[in-house]
Write a structure and sequence with these properties.
This protein is mainly β and about 600 residues long. It has 5 domains: about 120 residues, Immunoglobulins (Immunoglobulin-like, Sandwich); about 140 residues, Immunoglobulin-like, CATH 2.60.40; about 130 residues, Sandwich (Immunoglobulin-like), CATH 2.60.40.10; about 130 residues, Immunoglobulin-like (Sandwich); about 35 residues.
Length: about 600
């Protein structure tokens, strides 16, 4: 039992002995690149701030230690490292009191060797290990990256001038002749024009990582395009890499680079980037479609008569070459006194369907003969044709061209819009003079009877005109908030519309002459009292069978007051007289009956 306790104490003492650790080796690093080697000490006694000294044993003299740097003694460094220490090419970074890192910013071929980390003792009794060693092998830089296979990238990169929506394709070669087992990662990057290239200015677009996984840059613009299938990267062959952006934006303007990195796996299983090289592929300038697009319309001025044909032409120019992903739509807009902000007349959609504006295709006016067609191919020459001009066509016309880009997910994105200069249309309409007057058929109207309201229309024109008539009333019951109520109407085709009056009674219409109408209101009531008037609208039909409202007229108002009839006036006194006589008779009969009953009672006594 006593022997076991002694063994346990000895074992614990061994476990608590000082230990110094550096990474397992060998560590392969590339000439000209940085390296950092960690060193930490544990299970020590004394202060928490421990000191470290670094040595190197070179292959030509494996038994001779060369002092590199120390945390305690500034004069520790040997002459071969002194100049590098002064310029901070070699330095120690303290991570914490018992852990440091040796940093060499730029490895030289002669830096190969065994590196030793030594910790001066602070223990009461020497025990454990006070140093640890790791082998570092500096290998030549055999990584190659270039814009064109077999050639080094040009100092002055080629300039690519492209138009928005075109496809950008770039390629580069990347390879290594290293004898070690290394992996390559290749990325395509972009930097803003005329800016220094560095981690802060370089934006990752897309990359093939060392494990062959595709990684997209952190910028949402590239991630969205990758998800939509517009951004691709592929490895074509042993050392050839290709990137394609399906539809470029003006924001894609910049200097494009190909960056290749070589990776090696250290004995501890971690992957280290041992070298990286970058090659400029091209300076890409993306021209905006909106900046290039030009819209020219003609003729600048037209003088026509009513019923004539109007033709306008719209020429789309400015785009240097056909753009497969670009789609055009063309609209014609008219501005007039009635619509100063402009309204759509006709449009040729991206699906090449022609649609007319609401004012040119509805049930009231019919469908006008307006055509919009493409006369020439790319980029486009379009003609607007109005078969029968109307007074409402007077105004200023503009051709509006919009450009859309169809993405791979079939979503359309508008990228440009340009308007032509205004084109003037001067129209010589033939005059239409229209007047309306109204009066009662009889000077007095009575309750319960039929009232007649005449509407006489006067028309002066040399054109064929159809007239529509309607009757309106402002009822006396609406004195606080006057409101016009439609009573009845006759449309331009002569079809009557006879809704019931506000009071619920019926109406009818008689045509007494070509332009003379009579409205009949049956069973007139006190509630029909009000101000009545009629309106007339002159409609002209053009050769394309469309209708145009040439002018309108409103008559003066007529007061309708339903009088009570004479029999109604006599009926009230008659009722009052009969009621009074009946009341007096009842009183007399009651009085006589009472007296007779009293007389009878006296005789019995």
């Amino acid at each position: 039992m006593k022997g076991f306790e002694i063994f346990l104490l000895l074992h614990l003492g061994t476990c608590l002995a000082r230990e110094v650790h550096v990474p397992d080796g060998p560590l392969y690093r590339v000439e000209g690149t940085p390296i950092s080697i960690s060193c930490n000490v544990s299970n020590y006694e004394g202060p928490s701030l421990q000191h470290f000294e670094w040595f190197v044993y070179r292959p030509r003299a494996p038994n001779i230690s060369i002092g590199i740097i120390s945390t305690k003694n500034p004069h520790f460094t040997y002459a071969v490292f002194e100049s590098r220490r002064k310029i901070k090419d070699v330095y120690i970074h303290r991570v914490r009191g018992d852990s440091v890192e040796l940093h060499i910013k730029r490895l030289l071929r002669e830096d190969s060797g065994t590196y030793e980390c030594y910790t001066p003792t602070t223990d009461k009794k020497d025990s454990g290990t006070y140093s640890d060693k790791v082998m570092v092998k500096v290998i030549p830089d055999l990584l190659q990256v270039s814009a064109l296979k077999g050639r080094l990238a040009s100092v002055s990169p080629p300039l690519l001038i492209m138009t928005e929506s075109e496809e950008l394709q770039l390629s580069c070669t990347a390879s290594t002749q290293s004898k070690q087992h290394t992996h390559l990662s290749v990325s395509f990057d972009v930097s803003a024009p005329d800016t220094p290239v560095g981690p802060e200015t370089l934006q990752r677009i897309i990359a093939v990582q060392r494990d062959f996984i595709t990684e997209v840059g952190a910028v949402n613009l590239f991630a969205d395009r990758y998800e939509n299938g517009e951004l691709h990267i592929e490895k074509a062959g042993y050392d050839h890499y290709k990137m394609a952006i399906g539809s470029v934006h003006p924001e894609d303007t910049g200097t494009y680079h190909c960056t290749a990195a070589e990776w090696i796996q250290d004995p501890d299983g971690s992957w280290q980037k041992i070298t990286e090289k970058r090659s400029v592929l091209a300076q890409v300038n993306i021209l905006s479609i909106d900046d290039q697009l030009k819209v020219l319309a003609s003729p600048t001025e037209i003088h026509v008569n009513t019923g004539d044909t109007i033709e306008f032409f719209c020429n789309v120019t400015g785009i240097v070459s056909p753009l497969p992903a670009a789609i055009y739509s063309v609209e014609w807009e008219i501005s007039s006194d009635q619509h100063p902000q402009g309204q759509l007349m006709a449009a040729l959609t991206v699906d090449e369907a022609v649609i007319l504006g609401e004012e040119y295709s509805n049930r009231e006016i019919g469908n006008r003969h307006i055509s919009l067609e493409k006369l020439k191919a790319w980029p486009g020459y379009y003609r607007l044709r109005i078969d029968a001009a109307q007074p409402g066509d007077l105004g200023t016309y503009r051709c509006i061209v919009k450009v859309f880009v169809r993405h791979s997910n079939l979503i359309l994105q508008q990228v440009a819009r340009q308007n032509s200069e205004g084109l003037k249309v001067f129209l010589k309409p033939e005059a239409v003079v229209l007047q309306a007057s109204s009066r009662l058929a009889l000077s007095s109207v009575y309750r319960g009877e039929t009232a007649g309201l005449l509407c006489n229309i006067t028309l002066e024109t040399i054109q064929t005109v159809h007239v529509a008539v309607s009757w309106w009333v402002e009822l006396a019951v609406d004195e606080q908030e006057p409101k016009s109520h439609l009573i009845a109407s006759v449309d331009r085709e002569g079809v009557m519309k006879l809704p019931k009056r506000v009071t619920g009674r019926e109406v009818s219409i008689d045509k007494l002459g070509p332009l003379l109408y009579k409205l009949r209101m049956h069973q007139l009531q006190q509630e029909d009292e009000g101000q009545y008037y009629c309106t007339a609208t002159a409609w002209i039909q053009y050769p394309d069978q469309s209708w145009y409202s040439a002018t309108s007229a409103k008559s003066e108002t007529v007061t309708v007051y339903p009088y009570a009839r004479a029999m109604d006036l006599l009926f009230i006194p008659l009722i009052v007289g009969l009621a009074s006589a009946l009341f007096v008779g009842i009183i007399i009969i009651a009085t006589v009956t009472c007296c007779f009953m009293r007389s009878t009672q006296r005789r019995k006594r």
